[in-house]
Amino acid sequence: MKLLFLNGPNLNMLGIREPDIYGKQTYADLERYIRDFCGELGVDCEILQSNHEGVLVDAIQSAYGQADGIVINPAAYTHTSVALLDALKAVDIPAVEVHLSDVSRREDFRQISYVRQACRATFAGYGFEGYRLAAERLLCQKGQ
Ligand code: DQA
């Protein structure tokens, strides 16, 4: 089982950006957290962060035939990107959406998620743990 973890714009600024919303842990801490729980779950993982929509689209396309699942926090592209939605639909790899913050309790413009249509579940507001919950959801579905 191989999972691709994709993180969108400004998540590299974790620890610095709006710590009251996103916490004080850094992006390096997030990567370590993901690698640790993937080790525990016996899952191979690839982790990518980009501030560029096209790089994220390329990564989704490259996962075709390679990854068994995608955990994606598209960050701000959640609320704008038809291109990410189309890429997820194109490869048809089981995907789960994650947000560190509880977007449902934030601004109106964060209530729209384009990628959600191509995702099997969404975990928002669980901080780093959301990534683990997403991976476990993908593992469960693989076993069914
Ligand atoms: C986010 C929520 C988005 O609305 C925001 O643009 C982000 C991070 C989150 O993880 O809570 O950059 O995806």
Question: Could you list some keywords that capture this structure?
Answer:
144 residues; binds 1,3,4-trihydroxy-5-OXO-cyclohexanecarboxylic acid; globular; 5 helices
Question: Could you characterize the architecture of this molecule?
Answer:
This protein is α/β, with parallel strands linked by helices and 144 residues long. Helices cover 38% and strands 18% of the residues. The protein starts with a strand and ends with a helix. It has helices spanning 19-22, 27-41, 53-62, 82-91, 129-143, and strands at 2-7, 44-49, 69-73, 95-99, 121-124. Helix 3 (53-62) packs parallel to helix 4 (82-91). Strand 3, helix 4 (82-91) and strand 4 form a beta-alpha-beta unit. Strands 2-1-3-4-5 form a five-stranded parallel sheet, sandwiched between helices. The protein contains five helices and five strands, in the order βααβαβαββα. Bound molecules: 1,3,4-trihydroxy-5-OXO-cyclohexanecarboxylic acid. The site of 1,3,4-trihydroxy-5-OXO-cyclohexanecarboxylic acid has 10 residues, from loops.
Order of helices and strands: EHHEHEHEEH
Radius of gyration: 14 Å
Bound molecules: 1,3,4-trihydroxy-5-OXO-cyclohexanecarboxylic acid
Strand neighbour order, sheet with most strands: 2-1-3-4-5
State the share of residues found in helices, binned by percent: 25-40%
Instruction: Give me the count of strands.
Output: 5
Mean pLDDT: 97
N- and C-termini, Cα separation:
14 Å
Instruction: Give the class from helix and strand content and strand pairing.
Output: alpha/beta
DSSP helical segment count: 5
Spans with pLDDT under 50 lasting ≥5 residues? none
Specify the biggest β-sheet: 5 strands, parallel
Shape: globular
Strand composition percent: 15-25%
